[in-house]
Amino acid sequence: MELDNIEKLLEKYFEATATVTEEETLRTYFSQESVATHLVQYAPMFQYFTSAKEERFTKQVPLKPRRNYFKWASIAAVVVLLIGLYMNQPKTDPTPEDLMAMYTPEEIESAQEALAMLGMNLNKGTAQLSHLGEFEKTTNKFLTKE
Questions:
Q1: How far is CA 95 from CA 74, 100, 107, in A?
Q2: For residues 146 and 71, which has the higher predicted lDDT (pLDDT)?
Q3: Cα 117-120-125 angle, rounded to 5 deg
Q4: In whole angstroms, what is the distance from residue 10 CA to residue 27 CA?
Q5: Can you tell me the distance from the alpha carbon of 127 to that of 121, in angstroms, rounded to the nearest whole number?
Q6: CA–CA dist 145, 123 (Å, integer)
Q7: Domain boundaries, given as residue ranges, for the chain
């Protein structure tokens, strides 16, 4: 009868439905010398669980984590150095002679026409903004009721 009970408890244990007392019953059964031959394979597992329960962690755990500021400082220094080298490069603006050599007179003239047209359209847009300013003044008069 006891062997049948142990087998049922093993099934419940492997299905994860066994209670704590049933698991304790299994541990005590498998810690004995006389275990059924077809259940001997489970004995080392339960003996390990019993011995693992006794183990304790004794190493000192530091409360403050060590930070490696030197590593981050060296990375920051390299980044600042690279930015400094990039910003310190001499900038040469092309002179009008260089532009004449790079572009044909027709290309320069068409670019000047396009920029003049762009300026004209921008001036039209800014003229429209002055009307918006008048609208805002009038609206504020009605809202504040001065």
A1: 41, 9, 16
A2: 71
A3: 125
A4: 11
A5: 10
A6: 34
A7: 2-54, 96-144
